Amino acid sequence: MSAKTADKIATAVIVTLAGFIVLILAGLLGFILVRGLGHISFDFLTSPPETIKEGGGIGPQLFNSLFLLVLTLLITIPLGLGAGIYMSEYAKPGKVTDFIRLIVEVLSSFPSIVVGLFGLLVFVNVFGFGFSLFSGALALTVFNLPLMVRITEQGLNSVPIAQKEASLALGLSKWKTIRSIMLPIAMPIILTGTILAAGRVFGEAAALLFTAGMSSPRLDFTDWNPFSPMSPLNPFRPAETLAVHIWKINSEGLAPDAPEIAAGASAVLIITVLAFNLLARWLGRVMHKKFTATK
Amino acid sequence: MARTGRRQKPKQHLIEEWTGKIFTSLCIVFLVVTIFSIVYFVATKGLSTFLKDGISFAEIFGSKEWKPDGEPPLFGALPFIIGSFSTSLLAALISAPLGICAALFMIEIMPKIGRKYLQPVIELLAGIPSVVYGFVGLSVVVPFYRDVFPGQGLGIAAGATVLSIMILPTITSIATDALAALPSGLKEGSYALGATRWQTLYRTVLPTTLPALMTGVVLGMARAFGEALAVQMVIGNAPHIPGSLFESTSTLTSVITLSMGNTVMGTMQNNVLWTLALILMMMTFVFVFVVRWLEGRANR
């Protein structure tokens, strides 16, 4: 076989496989949307699930997922920003910094189920938060922290050094420089990364099985007192999220329309994650334009 | 007025400086404490199987019998260890050529189309939640295998298929970075000698980037090894070593997922599950170690 023929064959194979990947995604999205969209209605999105009857919805689960997302971001963002700033601006190259880098790397490769078990042991049992949104948020924080640290570091490293030096030369303190000069410039990258991380939190389930729990109490959506046990806003109540719900009805669903509910809920999950993705891209582009003065 | 203001300046400066330093250091301390407590808690729980319950190392790692409710209870974890390794290895074997081809397509063959269409597609694959993969696996992959091959369709083949799509983004993005970082002189030299594109890729580009490509494959495998729910949904969850790829079996993660809620903290059954979690954690360390070693080779 001549070298030219081999080149052509190899190119054809690579192009075919790349096309195959696009087909897989198209098939995946198509399957989920075609199977699920028909089942989505206002009623499905707002009504509570049924255990053995037909026609249950995903209202509480959807609310729990969003609420858990907010709680997690409230804890993750300050911690992740702080640790990222330290790694980018304060850490001096050396053994200790290398060690912290190794730790971030290990933490980011821990299986989420191991983080979930840790949460079960420490947040649920030792600290006594029980199966609750709060335990779930803490477990997801552990799980997301390395990502947040890396995003912040990346964002800060992209700031032109002249801008930092100019600020320091004007006599501003280092912290002030970081806070009011560097962070705003790094914001597009950090924000985009955070939204992508949020999409991941939304779909995460393994770490939540053992921390936020697999059941939801009957929620009273007229009770907005965060301390009452029936209130949707109470962070210390158990909460089943959308992703956990999909897993549960697939493995032990008793409702006769369980496959349809799973399809509908999967479609809702996918659409939300896609929306997060598009939002991140759009926001990244808009902010990049705004801050770099390119028209 | 102006004088006092000027005298207070340095002090405020120092306060600002220290708030920043203390706050960020605390965040780092929190991170370090977290990881050490994870290791500590999982290790003490996981080791109590051997230390407190007196189950031998050989039973966990060597025996094929898993009967936690039996009389006497038997805790052979070998089927799960084999299940975990075979699914993640097979997933990496399916996904590695696909991911590397996708990267070659994006960097070397059609960069414009690749960046515009293929890259967003692969990023979207990364964003799809694992339970959705499990759901699709259960409603498409498993019935397909059931119709085409003998058996129930649930098993290692179904698990590996689902996992291979899940880890595709990991492998592709790392391979893309590695190919993009290659100095262009290398390729130009090869072309100047009259080599075709495929000869250049096969003889020059791939061997040079091999350690980096392997890093991606190992990271993908690590992800597959730790993935719990998608695998649990399609693997069948039978506690024995399967005779074929299409027979029901279990992995370390699927056993933990299913059994943890049904056991009481502190009992022997529960401790053994923590031992499985400890094995998972140790494997994470092994994967990180291998990745570091490969990265060291890639930078040489």
List the helices and strands and how they pair.
The complex is a heterodimer of chains A (295) and B (300).
Chain A lengths: L2 H35 L4 H5 L12 H32 L4 H15 L2 H15 L6 H25 L3 H9 L4 H30 L2 H4 L32 H11 L5 H35 L3
Chain B lengths: L1 H50 L5 H6 L3 E2 L6 E2 L2 H32 L1 H17 L2 H19 L7 H25 L3 H9 L4 H30 L2 H7 L16 H8 L8 H31 L2
Antiparallel strand pairs in B: 1-2
GO cellular component, one term (chain A): plasma membrane
Pfam families (chain A): BPD_transp_1
Membrane topology (chain A): Multi-pass membrane protein
Describe the protein in words.
The complex is a heterodimer of chains A (295) and B (300). Chain A is mostly helical and 295 residues long. In chain A, 73% of the residues lie in helices and 0% in strands. Chain A has one domain (39-292): MetI-like (MetI-like fold). Chain A has 11 helices and no strands. Chain A starts with a helix and ends with a helix. By secondary structure, chain B is an all-alpha fold. Chain B has 11 helices and 2 strands; from the N terminus they run ααββααααααααα. In chain B, strands 1-2 form a two-stranded antiparallel ribbon. In chain B, helix 1 (2-51) packs across helix 11 (268-298), helix 6 (156-180) packs antiparallel against helix 9 (229-235) and helix 10 runs antiparallel to helix 11 (268-298). The chains are: A mainly alpha (295), B mainly alpha (300). At the A-B interface, helix 1, helix 3, helix 4, helix 5 and helix 6 of A face helix 1, helix 3, helix 4, helix 5 and helix 8 of B.
